[in-house]
Amino acid sequence: MFSSVLSLKPDKKIIFFAKLFVLGGLVAYVGYVLRQQPFDWRTVYTQFKTVHHPAWWLAGLVLLIPVNWGLEALKWYILLQRVERTTYWAAFQGVLAGVALGFALPAQLGDTAGRVLSLRSGERGAAIGASLVSGGMQFYVALVAGAIAWAYHLSIVVDRNTMAGRWLLFLLLSLAVSGVLLGLVRQRLVRWLSGRQGIDRWAKYWNVSGLYSDREIGLALTAATLRYGLFSVQFYLAMRAVGIQLPVAISASGIGLVFLVKTITPAFNLLSDLGVREAASLWVFAPFGLPTAVLLTATLLLWFSNILIPVLVGLIWVWKLRIRWP
Q: Quick count: other Cβ atoms within 10 Å of Cβ 65?
C-alpha cells in the first residue's frame, strides 16, 4: 500500500494525505470532546436503576437514529435533483459525510462541504445553494415550533411572562410569517438579486432556490417537519430513559425551546453544539425542579445517539469524498 501511494501523481498524493490528515484530525477531535464531557457513568447507572425498563426507552432512542438521518437524506435527495440526478443512497452518504465534517467545523461549513464534495458533477456552486436551502428549511421548522413552544411556556411559567418574553414571542411569530412571505416571492427575489451588479457573480449559489417548484418545496419541508418531530421524540425517549416524567405538553414545549436555542446559536468549532443543548435544557426546565445531573444525562444520551454515532459512521464516507485538484 505504501508503494502504491508513492507511485501516485503529485496532485493525487496531496489529495491522499489531505484526506488522511482530515480523517486523523476528526478522530482526534472526537476523542478530545469525549474527554471534556462530565459524563459520569456511575450517575447514569444509578439513575437507570430507578427507572422501570430503561432498556425499552434506550432501544427506541437508538432504533430511531437511522430514521432520523434517513429523513434528512430524503430532504437532501429531493433538493439535490435540481443540481444532479443521484440516488437516495448517494444522498445518504453525503449527509453522513457532512455530519462528520460538521462535527469539527463551525456553523454549516462542514455539513455543506461533506455534501458538496460527495457529488460527481461540477455543479458545486448550485449544490452549496441547495445545502443552504436544506438547512434553511430545518431552521424554519425549528423556528415555528419554537414560537409555539415559547407561547405555551409563557402561559405556564408566570415569572417568564414579562414584557421581554412577550416581545420575544412577537419577534418569533414575525419571523415565522416572514418565512412564508419569502417562500411566496422566492423566485422573483432570486431574479431581482441575479440582476444586481456587484452581487450577480454570487448568483450561482442562490439561483437554484428559484428553480424549485411548489411541490418540491412542499415535499422537502414535509421531510424537515417529520425529522423535527422524530428527534423531538428521541429527546423525550432520552428523558424517560433517565426517569424524567413530565406532562407531555410541558415536555414538548421544553424540547421545542431547547432545539430553538440550539438552532439559532452559532455552532462554534470548540463547542460542536455540545454544551449549547445542555445549557438550554438547564434553563428551560429549571422551573420544574429537575435534578441537574439527571437532565444532563438525558441531553448527553441524545448527543451520543444523534451526533456521535452518525459522526463515527460518517468518517467512512469522509474518506471516500471526491476531491478534485484544480
A: 17
* Side-chain-side CA neighbours of residue 79 (13 Å): 36
- Specify the 3-state DSSP secondary structure of 34: helix
Would residue 143 count as lying in a domain? yes
pTM: predicted TM-score of the whole model, two decimal places: 0.81
Cα(177)–Cα(117) distance, integer angstroms: 34
Q: CA 256, CA 143: separation in Å to the nearest integer?
A: 9
Rounded CA-CA distance 234/306 in Å is 9
Q: Mean of the pLDDT values across residues 27-55?
A: 63
92 neighbors 69 (Cβ within 8 angstroms)? yes
103 within some domain: yes
Count of domains forming the chain: 1
CA distances (Å), 104 to each of 114, 172, 300, in order?
12, 29, 18
CB 229 within 8 A of CB 118: no
Q: Which is nearest to 8 in space by CA: 251, 290, 325?
A: 325
Structural domain span for residue 141: 10-319
Where does the pLDDT of residue 84 fall: very low under 50, low under 70, confident under 90, or very high at 90 and above?
A: confident
Of 76, 106, 90, 7, the closest CA to residue 224 belongs to: 76
